[in-house]
Amino acid sequence: MSDMRAAAPMEKPVVLTVAGSDSGGGAGIQADLKTIEATGGFGVSAITAITAQNTTGVESSHPLPIAEITAQIDAVREDFDVRAVKTGMLATAEVVETVADYAAGVDAPVVVDPVMVATSGDRLLTEAAETAYEDLLAEAALATPNADEAAVLTGIEPTDEASAMAAGRELRSMGAEAALIKGGHVPGAAVLDVLVGPDGAETMRHPRIDTEATHGSGCTLSATIATRLARGVPLETAVERGVSFMERAVRYHHAAGTGPGAVHHLVDLRNEAGRAEATETVREAIDRLAEGGGDGSGSAASAIDNVASATPYAETDRDVAAVEGGWPPGADSAAPGRIRFGAAPALGAALLDGRERDPDLRVALACRPDVDLEDALDASPCVVADVDGGGIAVLSEDIDAALEAVETAHSA
């Protein structure tokens, strides 16, 4: 037998990002390539400008010569089947015009993120370049301006749903097939994103996250949408999933640098990687409960109905593993005793609600209604919450602490 192993190549759609470089790693080309890889694509790039920046601001910006930009684009076109293109910082009118010419000849969706000002407030686009955007927008499958950028491009300042729709319609009249007006820069308790496309408008509302760590958010959002389009995902679905992805990426941002920090480009990938750990946590817990009394008759075991464990960046019930049909296994479930994500919606909801206040909470034990047990648990270091439909949940950062709290309370 040969010692040589067979190769197992992976084929992923190629996504080209044409944007500036961010030495701080949170935005620009760096953010795009991380995001494209994390969401299922193979990222290639054409760098338009080099910036010296970090989480506190932009120190300097140096646009590359047009010949160097076109050389990068030509090299990519000659070798790769580009399935989607996204644009970011283009810096000058000449660069915008060059990229617009390329976009006109590419047979792939183009996502235009009209990067004009950095999150820190530093200007990244010349005034002359702002007026050159019309030709590029005419080639866009989707434009993704924030409220400030939409106001510059259309003359309409998006301050509410109606004005955001008006700005989106104006961008479509300029040639873009669709426009996503991002509401992150508009004050308010909720973030309002408005997608205006050929079939009308859709409004997406989600709670504002209490953080200023949004460096790279625009780049990351446009990159994840472009990658989904390259994978054949319909535009509306790609946008909805991209917005949900960004909500998680901002909440669980990187605390890097001395500034506010940067969004977490790999958050979904890391969350998926945590599913095995969550499942194993539940499995280990029920094994321990069974050892304490195989039929649920042990001291702690007799008080517990189910065990749940969340992924590290859990946001929905689909991120919470629990026992199908509860514990101990019964016959009233299609798969009694099986550990499944989303198996215990009420317990999952209690854990997710607790994570809104303390994102470090990872596990939950569902306990049968017992006033004495609940009173005894009040003295434990764990969080005690009500479960919809009856009973209580003991929430903790780790399963050992949760089991110990129930054991101690049950023995009191």
TrEMBL record:
<dbReference type="GO" id="GO:0009228">
    <property type="term" value="P:thiamine biosynthetic process"/>
</dbReference>
<dbReference type="GO" id="GO:0005524">
    <property type="term" value="F:ATP binding"/>
</dbReference>
<dbReference type="GO" id="GO:0004789">
    <property type="term" value="F:thiamine-phosphate diphosphorylase activity"/>
</dbReference>
<feature type="domain" description="Pyridoxamine kinase/Phosphomethylpyrimidine kinase">
    <location>
        <begin position="22"/>
        <end position="264"/>
    </location>
</feature>
<keyword id="KW-0547">Nucleotide-binding</keyword>
<dbReference type="InterPro" id="IPR004399">
    <property type="entry name" value="HMP/HMP-P_kinase_dom"/>
</dbReference>
<dbReference type="InterPro" id="IPR019293">
    <property type="entry name" value="ThiN"/>
</dbReference>
<protein>
    <submittedName>
        <fullName>Phosphomethylpyrimidine kinase / phosphomethylpyrimidine phosphate kinase / thiamine-phosphate synthase</fullName>
        <ecNumber>2.5.1.3</ecNumber>
        <ecNumber>2.7.1.49</ecNumber>
        <ecNumber>2.7.4.7</ecNumber>
    </submittedName>
</protein>
<dbReference type="GO" id="GO:0005829">
    <property type="term" value="C:cytosol"/>
</dbReference>
<feature type="domain" description="Thiamine-phosphate synthase ThiN">
    <location>
        <begin position="306"/>
        <end position="388"/>
    </location>
</feature>
<dbReference type="InterPro" id="IPR036409">
    <property type="entry name" value="Aldolase_II/adducin_N_sf"/>
</dbReference>
<dbReference type="Pfam" id="PF10120">
    <property type="entry name" value="ThiN"/>
</dbReference>
<keyword id="KW-0418">Kinase</keyword>
<dbReference type="GO" id="GO:0008972">
    <property type="term" value="F:phosphomethylpyrimidine kinase activity"/>
</dbReference>
<keyword id="KW-0808">Transferase</keyword>
<keyword id="KW-0067">ATP-binding</keyword>
<dbReference type="GO" id="GO:0008902">
    <property type="term" value="F:hydroxymethylpyrimidine kinase activity"/>
</dbReference>
<dbReference type="InterPro" id="IPR029056">
    <property type="entry name" value="Ribokinase-like"/>
</dbReference>
<dbReference type="InterPro" id="IPR013749">
    <property type="entry name" value="PM/HMP-P_kinase-1"/>
</dbReference>
<dbReference type="Pfam" id="PF08543">
    <property type="entry name" value="Phos_pyr_kin"/>
</dbReference>
